[in-house]
Amino acid sequence: MTTPPQNELFLINPCASYRLIDAIQNSFTGNPFPHALVTLAALTPVSYRVTFINKKIFWKKKDFSAGKLVAITCLTSAARHAYRLADRFRRAGSKVVLGGPHVSALPQEALQHADSVVIGEAESVWKDVLADFEAGRLKARYQGEPLEDFFSPVYDYYRRMEPAFLSRLGLHIDRGCKYRCDFCARISEWCRSIKMEQVLQLVERIKQAPRPFYLRKPFVVFRCDNIFSNPAYTKELFRKLAAFGVDWGANCSIDMCFDEEALRLAEESGCRVLLIGFETIHPHKYKKTSLRQVRSSEDYLTALGNLRRHRIGAVGSFIVGADEDGPADYLKLLWFLARARLWRSYLTLLTPFPGSRLFERLNAEGRIFSFNWTRYNFFNCVYKPKNMPVFSLYLWFYGVCLVSLLFSPQYITMYLVALFLYQLSYHFSYNFVSWLSR
Ligand code: SF4
Questions:
Q1: Domain Radical SAM core: where (predicted)?
Q2: What distance in Å separates the CA atoms of residue 320 and residue 343, rounded to the nearest whole number?
């Protein structure tokens, strides 16, 4: 006979930034749940009833009750909302633990809204947090240490997941990144990958998920920061993946596009699309990115040509607002996008996230003028740019964003489909009204 759960644990992924924008984004991304919270659920004993709450937009008074343990993870843009939820749960009589990149960077700030904060990766301390909660003596801080084999303790939980849920969640096969970008606020810099056989077993599970009619094969999303962080491991994975008959997509750094063997193996294993962080079109000017082996935007075009030869689509992300860039550079960016033939491009404004070297530098120079974390969502300027007033930077940024849509086959297709549907509905409604008025 199984005993009923004694304790209740809420795992909350709060809305980031403006909630309406978040709701719109969610409708496009399928609202994936963060792996950090799934990992905590996996490490929680069965004596807890675990409830996942993912980007809930509207909260009612009765949602906040006493006696629970509430764990909230937060990115910087979600911090304000996370703090508000934490305050309300604490007022209702529950205990709140905050964690995530923003909390790890600013634990003192987070502690004003929580009973405890977890700094760094939580796996190594989660059992202590639960034991202390049960004993009624939660500590203010728990310092998580990165574990080399961070996935084995939770692997069984993932393996038992519904294939459809696992497919939506994607596979987070590594931690850390080999680069040290100035603007990146990662918790750990230590690169570690999960065991190959675990990845392959989970891919096998995802294959069992029902798939939409427009997909030829099961599609696996690798949600790691950079699938090419450990090239030897990645190539071995591609070799093994080739036998599985799946398509897949991932984030990767541009060095993979110059590695012929990696590209060939990626193509054979079913790689369909890679999201590449180009960051700037002037890699030689802006040295603090991951692009040391690339000298100019011409090298980017070569890299993209290599991808096309292997029938791999590319999505590119770029950052606007670096100190080194001015109006002429934004025009060059547009010219580059016109020639790059990317599926689509993501343009973001340079954002100094707490925990990044960029934040420390701009803060030390007294150039950050807004500490309203809700604005730290890649689309607001929160610091004084070097080469132009804030208003001009906004004009350039949104201007470049708008014009860049013209070079994206994905947006053009969406626009044409919308236009076609509009014409169709106009035609039918016109004929219908004419028929009625006969
Ligand atoms: S390559 Fe990406 S994940 Fe790695 S440090 Fe740079 S921004 Fe962060």
A1: 159-389
A2: 19
Ligand 1 cavity residues, CB under 6 Å = 177, 179-181, 184, 186, 225-226, 253, 277, 290
78 CA from centroid of ligand 1 (Å)? 20
Kind of pairing, strands 141-143 and 174-175?
A: unpaired
Go through the domains of the chain in sequence order and give each one's CATH number: 7-143 (3.40.50.280), 176-407 (3.80.30.20)
Phi, psi of 200 (to 5 degrees): -65, -40
Please tell me the distance between residue 89's alpha carbon and the centre of ligand 1 in angstroms: 34
Mutate to test the pocket of ligand 1, among 177, 178, 257 (most ligand atoms within 8 A of CB): 177
Which residue in this structure is represented by tokens 């799946």? 246
More confident residue, 278 or 96: 96
Kindly report, residue by residue over 248-270, the tens digit of the pLDDT: 999 998 889 999 999 999 999 99
> What is the pairing mode between strands 313-320 and 271-279?
parallel
β strands within 292-396, DSSP E = 313-320, 344-349
Question: Would you say 127 and 43 are in contact if contact means Cβ atoms under 8 Å apart?
Answer: yes
Number of the ligand 1 atom closest to the C-alpha atom of 277:
2
CB 270 within 8 A of CB 217: yes
Distance CA 157, CA 145 (A): 22
Q: Based on the number of CB atoms within 10 Å of its own CB, is 163 exposed (0-12), middle (13-18) or buried (19 or more)?
A: middle
The span from the CA of 219 to the CA of 243, in Å, is 14
Residues whose CB falls within 8 Å of the CB of residue 170, separated by 6 or more in sequence, listed in order: 32, 220, 221, 222, 223
Does residue 286 carry a pLDDT above 60?
no
Q: Which residue's CA is the closest to the ligand 1 atom numbered 6?
A: 181
Chain centroid offset of residue 123 CA: 20
Q: For residue 39, give the nearest of 164, 129, 152 by alpha carbon.
A: 152
Is 60 exceeded by the pLDDT of residue 140?
yes
- C-alpha span between 367 and 389 (Å, rounded): 12
**Mean pLDDT, residues 61-86 taken together:** 95
Give the ipTM of the model, two decimals please: 0.98
Phi/psi region, residue 247 (left: phi>0; alpha: psi -120 to 50; beta: rest), is: beta
How confident is the model at residue 271, as a pLDDT? 97
What span, in angstroms and rounded, lies between the C-alpha atoms of 360 and 368?
10
Ligand 1 atom closest to residue 177's alpha carbon, by position in its atom list: 4
